[in-house]
Amino acid sequence: MSAEEGKGGPGGWTTMKIDPEIFEELGVRDPEELKREMAISKRIRQVRKELKDNPDSVELQLELGRLFIDGGDMDEATKQLKQVINRDNKNGPAYKLLGTAYAMSNHEDEAIRELTRAAELLPEDPEIHLNLGGVYMLEDMYESAARCFRKVVEIDPMDRLGYANLAAAYDMDKKYDEEIQALKKILMFAPEDIELRSALSTAYFNSENYDEALNHALCVIELDEKDPQAYCNLGSCYSAQNMTDEAVEAFKKATEIDPDYSLPHTNLGSLYATIGRIEKAIKEFKLATSMNQSDSLAWMNLYSCYKEVGRMEDAQEAYKKYESLMNQGPQADNQTNIPGGVSSTGQLASGGDLDTASPGMEEIPS
Predict the structure, then answer these.
(1) Cβ-based neighbours of 133, under 8 Å, separated by 6 or more
(2) Cβ distance 266 to 246 under 8 Å?
(3) How far is CA 297 from CA 101, 195, 263, in A?
(4) How far apart are CA 65 and CA 73, in angstroms?
(5) Which of these, 66, 116, 68, lies nearest to 92 by C-alpha position?
(6) Contact of 99 with 134, CB cutoff 8 Å
(7) What is the pTM of this model?
(8) How many of the other CB atoms lie within 10 Å of CB of 170?
(9) Which tens digits make up the pLDDT trace of 31-81?
(10) Rounded CA gap, 229 and 15, in Å?
(11) How far is 153 from 161, CA to CA, in rounded Å?
(12) SS3 assignment for the chain
């Protein structure tokens, strides 16, 4: 086989990128990740060697700290960065990286302290305010987080990530009018962003502006008519406006798109219960709980429906399931579908992205 054929020419091999999840399923390491780790280790050795020849180079010392963060060695990163700060307690980039390392190792108090100091030294650096706001989000300090994210967009009015996080902070703090304004601004940059458009619909829904919620829910459907979650949200909008037939149709459409998706059955059951169709509601709640044993809302509503029709033994069993889920501790919230939280490195070292959550306007009152 010729060299040309070996590179994918006629009769040769075709090189394909393998999804990293495949390696996880097989229980082996992703070669790309291994390659990255080896490159980091090699550069760490090089930097250490260079520091022996030039021990006073702050640039090399900071690079070593970044490399430790990239390699996931937060203990070494904090030690290295503390050494820089001990030599120069006004080194803003060192505080910035140290705060990031603390945030990534779940030391939120220390992260807040160091990132606050970094913000004092480098007040016009939006990444510092972004990461500081992210740590405040992790600590449920939403007002403080919003203040940081507002600073980000003050520095750069075109910063989409800043607006997205600002909207997330307002959402968690239940300041829906402010969230709506933030989402409108970011949608000016990305009018066809489905996730953000859905978030705007959710914010309107939470603020009880159901007309606008419905308008934007329909817009999401136009952008992606195969999204079952979008139809769940659409059904919730219809339900809030007592448009029962339309709501039922939307929830059923979601089940058609994804037969294994439990949420539309929970919502459809809730809708049937509110209009007195208890047997239909029981059927939907049973389907929902068979698909998702952790759906506490479905179990609680199933209990109420069984109790309504006098099936007390079934009611007690459903309530036991609900009580067991509640005793397991708080379940993950799905209150917003826009980015929020702390960036893994704020693109300081690893360039990680913000986490995203799921849409929150997914349940109708039962």
Answers:
(1) 144, 145, 146, 147, 148, 149, 152, 165, 169
(2) no
(3) 38, 24, 10
(4) 9
(5) 116
(6) no
(7) 0.74
(8) 25
(9) 788 888 899 999 999 999 999 999 999 999 999 999 999 999 999 999 999
(10) 36
(11) 9
(12) CCHHHHCCCCCCCCCCCCCHHHHHHHCCCCHHHHHHHHHHHHHHHHHHHHHHHCCCCHHHHHHHHHHHHHCCCHHHHHHHHHHHHHHCCCCHHHHHHHHHHHHHCCCHHHHHHHHHHHHHHCCCCHHHHHHHHHHHHHCCCHHHHHHHHHHHHHHCCCCHHHHHHHHHHHHHCCCHHHHHHHHHHHHHHCCCCHHHHHHHHHHHHHCCCHHHHHHHHHHHHHHCCCCHHHHHHHHHHHHHCCCHHHHHHHHHHHHHHCCCCCHHHHHHHHHHHHCCCHHHHHHHHHHHHHHCCCCHHHHHHHHHHHHHCCCHHHHHHHHHHHHHHHHCCCCCCCCCCCCCCCCCCCCCCCCCCCCCCCCCCCCCCC
pLDDT digits (tens, 9 = 90+) for 169-221: 999 999 999 999 999 999 998 888 999 999 999 999 999 999 999 999 999 99
Rounded distance between C-alpha atoms, residue 255 and residue 228, angstroms: 7
What does the alpha-carbon distance between residue 165 and residue 346 come to, in Å, rounded to a whole number? 13
Interacting residues of 278 by C-beta distance below 8 A, sequence separation 6+: 272, 305, 308, 309
Q: Which residues contact 96 (CB under 8 A, 6 or more apart)?
A: 114, 115, 118, 122, 125, 127, 128, 131, 348
**How many residues in the chain?**
366
The rounded distance, in Å, linking the Cα atoms of 70 and 83 is 18
Task: Give the sign of the dihedral formed by CA 172, CA 173, CA 174, CA 176.
Answer: negative
Q: 10 pLDDT exceeds 50?
A: no
Please report, as a single letter, which amino acid is at residue 222. E
Give pLDDT tens digits for 216-250: 999 999 999 999 999 999 999 999 999 999 999 99
